[in-house]
Design goal:
Strands 53, 55, 56, 58, 59, 60, 63, 66, 69, 71, 73 and 75 form a twelve-stranded parallel sheet that branches. Strands 57-54-74-72-70-67-64-61 form an eight-stranded parallel sheet, with no helix packed on it. A hairpin with a 2-residue loop joins strand 13 and strand 14. Helix content is 4%, strand content 41%. It is mainly β. The radius of gyration is 40 Å and the shape is flat. It folds into seven domains: 130 residues, Immunoglobulin-like (Sandwich), CATH 2.60.40; 97 residues, Sandwich (Immunoglobulin-like); 97 residues, Immunoglobulin-like, CATH 2.60.40; 97 residues, Sandwich (Immunoglobulin-like), CATH 2.60.40.1220; 97 residues, Immunoglobulin-like (Sandwich); 97 residues, Immunoglobulin-like (Sandwich); 176 residues, no CATH class. The chain is built from two helices and 75 strands.
Length: 875
């Protein structure tokens, strides 16, 4: 079947090649006809977002002048869609002027008017269809409609058919009412589910009405078709009861460190369960303790252990109430009796009694039958002796196990006696009935050996940057492996280096590379000892020979030799045949010249690749000469045999233009935040712009901060302010998404510090963080007052201010209103920074002390903070 399809495809291609393609009036070259190879959305796609950018990708480059509103159309159910057509690389794009209509089938069409660069046209119109996202619905609620017996502390939820825009689910669009009275509460959203948590418990035996309004929208901006309404009734008051206790009533043999608990039939009010309503007595004497509540269980934790073999009485009074305020019907009383005191015992030791062959670095342990009082386990109650001589060591305790760690290794082939005295007591204060004594014998001393080396004995061709290692038969004492006991020599001359040790392996790292084609001798002396202090039986000696020196070569460059059309922001690289010494690759050994003039730039090195990053863009349509001199050396110190020279020519200058980001109603604000707006200190000023916060309400520090020619608006202001803020927030979200997805002209990838650079208009994309430090960033409009910059920053954005650092400088007619900084997390404008442009941050924005901005600080989901004496001026 696959073979038949392949033959059919080859036949069609052959026919096309013979027949040629339709052309316009000018002469074109015969060749393969252009075709549409893919679209976005795909043919037959459903649930397409309403803000979708429509694209069609061709099999070859097309004539941009033939990609127009006449050749690329989009039609809805009954009308043609208006939009902007663009073309880049192999892809034509259709950007609708307004969002698509939900639940609608659209038809895209690329007509035969579209032609490639040779004048060859599509042979037939390319047509495909797709459908947009449908309106969201509420698919379930908890409580469900007409539910009864609902708990008074109920969190009310509504689950949607599709993911929703969390900014549209608020206390305005999700309400709970008792008749006409709105219930106070907090609304949140996660995983297609909105949750309403009442500020205080609901009233018992009461009918409530839940409503989700059409203000709730999915992430494509599609609202509910109609308000969703349901009702439920709360449970009637029920008296709480104690359903169980621990210990149970009349229990005996209760442990002395018991935490006493009582479990209720329902959730209780924590403020009513205290040392007054939950008491424990021994006869008429109150037992001191701490009361706590978790879920439906209250706990009484005595301050000290209970007395052995004693009757105790627990009482929970009618002062204890459930969360609806209903008390117990009567005091609940129960009794229990504690266990008699039982002496602890040692149930095992390590080493065991009469053990032999015990390792010399052994930590001795003993396991008790019950938890013990750590204060009674010390060097006085736990001892190790060799005859009558006490072994020095440290005693520690964890759980039911005590450990004795000798200060130094035990002696070989020696009998030791361990003793735990009756001074050791359990947590109830009961001591051992008698001293516990046991003995063990240590192992014989065994001399360590070297079992392998790297390089191996008599090895040849050893690399010059080799780190030499020796592996032992057992663990060694690191303090005995030094430059005195582990040496590398060339004849009688010692090689300088550093010795280290890990596990069973000693390492000698030469200070500098070894000489080529040279015999070396490695020696580990009898000064090297194992952890028992036993030395090697004799010096261990081996030899190896290094490889001959080989001159490195440049095996490739980017751009290649004689390359043309090189982009102006090109970073020039050279790949070597071997790893190189980074210290020999500098601005002196790696140069770029335009004629005899050196290009300023930074040289760096990684692995086998040297990189030359010009300080500013290269000149257009210019021949450059790159040179790597014989000063460049490999890690063995061997230089290039001769200078390596290559040339390349840059492309013609192209000044890209980025699309303007329309802030719409969000543009009236100098500060717009979601949670808080804060002026920490100082007389900050906002000039000719408003300050807004939605859905949050907290605006602090105004005054001393002042607003000239503007006002402060919050979500608690009288109507229609909240609706205005909600629209501004939606416009901010739309502007953020537009800036984030802008793709024409093609974004230029940038990373790290932008200080010291000059950037032309266009789109600049960073896949991680971006900063301006160690110099200023200059934006040059090149005489175009309408020039636009969009910075797409995936993560955080920071500036480090100060004299000559971290500032944004505008030249060539550039305007702050046309600069947009889309930040994927949070932005920080450093102290004393002079900043230009509109920051649209996903999370938060912080302005450092004395920083100024001509622009806007707009935070979608978080806060805007002015730390001290900041100025924001309308651009």
């Amino acid at each position: 079947m696959k073979k038949k399809k392949l033959l059919t495809a080859l036949t069609i291609i052959l026919i096309v090649l013979i027949a040629g393609c339709q052309k316009d009036d000018f002469a074109g070259n015969e060749g393969v006809c252009p075709i549409v190879v893919s679209t976005n959305p795909l043919k037959g796609a459903s649930n397409v977002p309403l803000n979708q950018l429509i694209t069609a990708t061709f099999n070859e480059k097309m004539d941009p002048e033939t990609i127009t509103e006449e050749s690329f159309t989009l039609q809805g159910a009954t009308t043609m869609v208006t939009g902007t057509i663009s073309y880049t690389d192999l892809t034509a794009s259709f950007a609708p002027s307004s969002p698509l209509i939900p639940n609608t089938t659209y038809t895209g069409r690329i007509k035969t008017l579209a032609k490639d660069l040779n004048g060859n046209a599509l042979q037939t119109d390319y047509v495909w269809t797709f459908s947009t996202d449908a309106s969201p619905t509420v698919i379930s609620t908890d409580p469900e409609n007409n539910a009864t017996g609902v708990a008074l502390n109920k969190s009310i939820t509504a689950k949607f058919s599709v993911p929703m825009d969390s900014l549209t689910l608020t206390s305005s669009t999700f309400t709970i009412k008792e008749g006409a009275t709105t219930v106070a509460g907090i609304v949140s959203y996660a995983d297609s589910t909105a949750t309403f948590i009442p500020t205080s418990p609901l009233s018992p035996n009461t009918l409530y009405t839940g409503t989700i309004t059409t203000g709730a929208k999915n992430i494509a901006g599609t609202p509910l078709v109609a308000n969703y309404v349901w009702t439920f009734t709360t449970v009637s008051p029920v008296v709480p009861v104690v359903i169980s206790t621990d210990p149970a009533d009349n229990a005996t043999g209760v442990v002395l460190n018991k935490t006493v608990t009582a479990t209720f039939s329902m959730l209780m009010d924590p403020s009513t369960l205290t040392g007054i309503t939950f008491i424990l007595k021994q006869g008429t004497t109150f037992v001191p303790g701490i009361v706590s509540l978790s879920g439906t269980t209250v706990s009484f934790n005595p301050t000290s252990n209970l007395a052995p073999n004693t009757l105790y009485t627990g009482t929970i009074t009618t002062g204890a109430k459930n969360i609806a305020g209903t008390p117990l019907a009567a005091n609940y009383v129960w009794t229990f009796t504690t266990a008699a005191a039982v002496a602890p015992t040692v149930i095992s030791t390590d080493p065991t009694n009469n053990a032999t062959g015990v390792v010399l670095n052994k930590t001795v342990t003993a396991l008790f039958s019950v938890p013990m009082d750590p204060l009674t386990l010390t060097g006085s109650t736990f001892t190790i002796k060799q005859g009558t001589t006490s072994v020095a060591g440290t005693v520690s305790f964890s759980g039911s196990t005590v450990s004795f760690n000798p200060t130094s290794n035990l002696a070989p082939n020696t009998l030791y006696t361990g003793t735990i005295t009756t001074g050791a007591k359990n947590i109830a204060g009961t001591p051992l009935a008698a001293n516990y004594v046991w003995t063990f014998t240590t192992a014989e001393a065994v001399a360590p050996t070297v079992i392998s080396t790297d390089p191996a004995n008599s090895a040849t061709g050893v690399v010059l940057d080799k780190t030499v290692t020796a592996t032992f038969s057992m663990l060694m004492d690191p303090s005995t492996l030094t430059g005195s006991t582990f040496t590398i020599k060339q004849g009688t001359t010692s090689v300088a280096g550093t010795v280290s040790f890990s596990g069973s392996t000693a390492t000698f790292n030469p200070t500098s590379n070894l000489a080529p084609n040279t015999l070396y001798t490695g020696t580990i002396t009898t000064g090297a000892k194992n952890i028992a202090g036993t030395p090697l039986a004799a010096n261990y000696v081996w030899t190896f020979t290094t490889a001959a020196a080989v001159a490195p070569t440049v095996i490739s460059t980017d751009p290649t030799n004689n390359a043309t059309g090189v982009v102006l922001n090109k970073t020039v690289t050279a790949l070597f045949s071997v790893p190189m010494d980074p210290l020999t690759l500098t601005g002196s050994t790696f140069t770029i010249k335009q004629g005899t003039t050196s290009v300023a730039g930074t040289v760096s090195f990684s692995g086998s690749t040297a990189t030359f990053n010009p300080t500013s863009n290269l000149a257009p349509n210019t021949l450059y000469t790159s040179t790597i001199t014989t000063g460049a050396k490999n890690i063995a110190g061997t230089p290039l045999a001769a200078n390596y020279v290559w040339t390349f020519t840059t492309a013609e200058a192209v000044v890209p233009t980025a699309p303007f980001v329309d802030l719409k109603t969000a543009g009236r604000f100098g500060i717009l935040a979601a949670t808080t707006v804060t002026n920490d200190a100082g007389f900050s000023v906002i000039n000719n712009l408003d300050v807004g916060i939605y859905p949050g309400t907290a605006v602090t520090g105004f005054p001393p901060a002042t607003i000239i020619g503007g006002a402060i608006y919050t979500s608690t202001d009288a109507s229609p302010i909240p609706a205005m803020l909600a629209q501004a927030k939606l416009d901010l979200t739309e502007a953020y998404l537009f800036a984030e997805s802008a793709s024409s002209p093609a974004p230029v990838t940038v990373s790290g510090n932008q200080g010291g650079k000059t950037l032309a208009p266009g789109i600049y994309k960073s896949t991680s963080t971006l900063s301006i430090s160690s110099g200023n960033l200059t934006l040059d409009a090149q005489g175009n007052a309408n020039a636009v910059w969009i910075f797409q920053i995936a993560s955080a954005f920071t500036t480090v201010g100060g004299t000559g650092n971290g500032n944004v400088i505008l030249t060539g007619g550039a305007q702050a209103k046309n600069i947009f900084w889309q930040v994927g997390s949070s932005a920080t404008i450093g102290d004393y920074t002079s900043f230009y442009g509109n920051i649209i941050a996903l999370t938060s924005i912080t302005m450092g002390s004395n920083s100024t901005a001509v622009g806007r600080m707009l935070a979608r989901n978080g806060a805007v903070v002015m730390t001290s004496t900041n100025t924001i001026t309308k651009p």
